[in-house]
Amino acid sequence: MPSKLPLALITALLATVHTAHAAEQVVKIGVSGPLSGANAFAGKDNENGVRLAIEELNAQKLQVGGNTIRFELQSEDDGGDPKQGVTVAQKFADAKVKFVLGPYNSGVAIPASRVYNDNGILMSTVGTNPKITAGGYATVFRIVASDTQVGGSVANYAAKDLKIRNVGVIDDRGAFGQGIAMEFKRQAQAAGIKIAGHEYTNDKATDFAAILTSLKAKRVDAVFFGGYAPQAAPMARQMKALGLNVPLLGGDTLCSPEMAKLGGPAVGENVRCAQAGAIVARQPGGQAFIDGYKARFKRDPDVYAPSFYDQTKFIAQAMKSANSVDPAKVGAAMHTISYQGVVGTYGYDPKGNLKKTTVTVYTFKNGVLSPLASY
Predict the structure, then answer these.
(1) Which structural domains are found in the chain, ordered by start?
(2) 307 and 343 in contact (C-beta within 8 Å)?
(3) pLDDT, mean of residues 192-221
(4) What pLDDT, on the 0 to 100 scale, is given for residue 111?
(5) Per the database record, which ranges form the Leucine-binding protein domain (predicted)?
(6) Strand order in 368-374's β-sheet?
(7) Given 99, 128, 256, 366, which is the most exposed site by the fewest CB atoms within 10 A?
(8) pLDDT in tens, 21-41
(9) What is the b/e burial string over 21-38, where b = at least 16 CB atoms within 10 angstroms of the residue's CB?
(10) Distance from C-alpha of 180 to C-alpha of 196, rounded to nearest angstrom
């Protein structure tokens, strides 16, 4: 008569056999962002957020469709340039990459989104211009607040908390800078703030003396800048040098350690910026993310590393929910389920915008971002 094996041993043996038959399936995750140029710090930060998520997911040996999923990162430099971003999108398509985190810049995301859609690639961007999700692409997701939400929060804060009545607006003529400046301007006027003047620059400029002198003559109570930290930091220094001692307002791109690094003593409580999401350190799992990021990369996370980390994890969760790595099926799942990340809760409307998102206004104290209010 055959001997009976203990139930626990039988279970273990069956699990071993099942694991042995589970094939490994490689899923490529692409990252498109500026790894060169003035915003390279942001591109690398975004890449690090994805890399950390992938390393954690691979350690979990995710099972989808009977296969063990192994994620591979492919990062490409789009230089923050629309043409280069489209080239990167085509490169990903040729390499059979089906999930892309990025682009970082709205001006890159708008034309690239069509290439991704046409090639069946799921794109997750931090580009905030409303046009990105206006194309009706089912697998395009905006993982942060839009210009409408961020610009409105800054306008609301300027009117109610700072009591601003007369503001000057500057934008860099880019898709992001122009988009957020126009939203701020529209909602500021609705809140009773007068727009004293709207000036223009570009994303390569370093001298803003003429623009700032003009706004100073109009006795503005604040300056709103639609653009990026590499321009905003010298702008803050030149405002101080000209005696234009009023708040410098802006969106999430000013909520970066790079502002304090480039602006030095000229960047302090005079800078007020709005960033999508709740205060990460105060969120469940937020401090653990910060500590893990610092341990892995020997630096603090910047603005969007947590968002890229969260979305990578959400994509993995949607794969399990759909029991598929097909981007169309994964995207459909992301429209119906939600995910609790370190920035907040992710859930998308039919256009790929977040259904609900917090926007937090920050300032700088001793070179470090300090939260002031959330909306």
Answers:
(1) 22-145+282-343 (3.40.50.2300), 148-276+360-374 (3.40.50.2300)
(2) yes
(3) 97
(4) 97
(5) 27-365
(6) 194-200, 166-171, 222-226, 248-250, 271-276, 359-365, 368-374
(7) 366
(8) 569 999 999 999 999 998 999
(9) eeeebebebbbbbbbebb
(10) 17
Q: Please, what is the average pLDDT of the chain?
A: 93
Retrieve residue 280's tokens: 């990460």
The b-or-e profile of 233-245 (16+ CB within 10 A means b, else e) is bbbbbbbbeeebe
Q: What is the pLDDT of residues 305-342, one digit of tens each?
A: 999 999 999 999 999 999 999 999 999 999 999 999 99
Helices 106-118 and 82-94 cross at an angle (nearest 10°) of 30
Neighbours of 285 (CB within 10 A): 15
DSSP conformation letters of 88-147: HHHHHHHTT--EEE--SSHHHHHHHHHHHHHTT-EEEE----GGGGSS--TTEEE-S--H
Which are the contacts of 151, defined by CB distance < 8 A and separation ≥ 6? Answer: 180, 181, 182, 183, 184, 185, 186, 187, 251
State pLDDT tens for residues 290-301.
999 999 999 999
For residues 122-140, one letter each, b for 16 or more C-beta atoms within 10 angstroms of the residue's C-beta and e for the rest, the string is bbbbbbbbbebbeeebbbb
Looking at this protein, which amino acid is placed at residue 202? N
